[in-house]
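Aim 2 progress update. The chain analyzed this quarter is reproduced below.
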Amino acid sequence: MFEELEKIELAEELFGTDFPVDMTEDLTVNNPREVVDYFVLHLRGWGPNPAAADFLKKLAKKHNSPTLAEGLHDRWRRDQISAVIREIFNTGDRSAGGDDAVIPVRKPRVPKAGGRAAAQSLDEDNPSG
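Predicted structure tokens:
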């Protein structure tokens, strides 16, 4: 329990904002997507503070991912937020490497094959008739 509190305090220090208490369960069940989405929304327009920039530089070196250390004077990026959450809370699978290992993303849904009429009906506000 104490260790989890220390992790939350570190996340708050790096992100410069309070950690949502109701989201700690999302981390313990290994589902960091909600937490990353929360921080992406709440950190919009803000960039990494000096402590976070230093942390990201260390992560970039440790995981041989130089893109994490790019744009440290710009706004937070999703991959940076995800990497910080993953590192602090030991979530996700790092063995695959690369940015795709941060959080799995589903492919967008596409219309099933079956004719042009089905796809056209999705684009029309009102069916013809």
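Residues 2-15 form the longest helix (14 residues). Confidence is low (pLDDT under 50) at residues 93-108, 116-125. These observations will guide the mutagenesis experiments scheduled for the next reporting period.
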